[in-house]
Predict the 3D structure of the following.
Amino acid sequence: EQRAAEYAVWQTSLRNPDFAAFARNCGAHGVRVEDPADLSVAITRALDHRGPALVEIITDPQSR
């Protein structure tokens, strides 16, 4: 939020955790997608999973 609003970064590194790893640590299905070619398979597997699932999609905001 601070970077998006162009506020000064103060006493924090503002790095996101690996949400997919966090989901797996909690017993859910978690997968991190960095390549758009892998997205369809990741979503299909998440929807097929019996239980909670998280698909973390890494995007490049500069690519718009």
